[in-house]
Amino acid sequence: MKHIARKRFGQHFLTDGGIIDGIVDAIYPLAGEPMVEIGPGLAALTQPLVERLGHLHVIELDRDLAARLRAHTQLSVIESDVLRVDFTALTHNLHVPRIRVVGNLPYNISSPILFHLLNHVAVIQDQHFMLQKEVIDRMVAKPCTSDYGRLSVMLQWRYAMENVLHVPPHAFNPPPRVDSAVVRMVPLASPPSLDLPLLESMVQVAFSQRRKLLRHTLGRWLEARGFEGQFDVQRRAEEVPVEQYVALVQSL
């Protein structure tokens, strides 16, 4: 029976064979590697991945799709909202040090998923995700550009990232109204040591009024915490490189 895409789950199914091959080549799965796919849907990526891996863990919220996937003996199906999945515990249960994570993420909750995985980054080898192109543009953006913002800082302090493939709307059924892309995210081998909730709070304040100078936002936030160090608040949030935000939160 044909599965109808469900809008509430943000379902857009990948159908273009050339694009699928390009994504799998970018992921470069090797036999026996522990890999988890988020939102396998109709198994467009799942099938070529499992052919190379031998076995694959998949996370699927849609109960009808999860039932279909269970028919595949080479798949271990986790029927759950991905935001409830403990990737650290899953990795420990597999008795491996790290896992690879891939997926065509639901565009309506892509940022919450990225931040959820950030909490489990210590057990992740790499991540390859298909996302809305404008989201990936923000993820990989450089300072002093319009795309550079909270998402850029909150991910770049911990990952090396690159846009590896453009995916047009007609590659999906139903076609989304936006262009998509595939991002590669590799956790930094020697990340800076910092208080993540404090960084998140600080960056949120900094970009809360991005057109204003930081003395109106972050400056007041720093004053309230008794900060007496050196930090130039006579610039806008988008002008501050990631490493300077990291250094500031470390000094706090």
Write the layout of secondary structure elements.
Blueprint: E1 13-14, H1 17-27, E2 35-38, H2 46-53, E3 56-59, H3 63-69, E4 75-78, H4 87-93, E5 99-104, H5 110-118, E6 124-132, H6 133-139, H7 150-156, E7 159-167, E8 172-173, E9 180-187, H8 196-206, H9 218-224, H10 242-251
Parallel strand pairs: 2-3, 2-5, 3-4, 5-6
Antiparallel strand pairs: 1-8, 6-9, 7-9
CATH class assignment of the largest domain: Alpha Beta
The main sheet comes to: 7 strands, mixed
Structural class: alpha/beta
State the separation between the terminal residues, measured CA to CA.
58 Å
The percent range for strand residues is: 15-25%
Helix coverage percent of residues? 25-40%
What order do the strands of the largest sheet run in, or round the barrel if closed? 4-3-2-5-6-9-7
Element-by-element helix/strand order? EHEHEHEHEHEHHEEEHHH
What is the number of beta strands?
A: 9
Assign an overall shape.
Answer: elongated
Count of runs of 4 or more consecutive helical residues: 10
Low-confidence spans: pLDDT under 50, at least 5 residues? 1-10
Fill in the CATH topology of the largest domain.
Rossmann fold
Q: How many domains make up the 3D coordinates?
A: 2
Rounded mean pLDDT score:
93
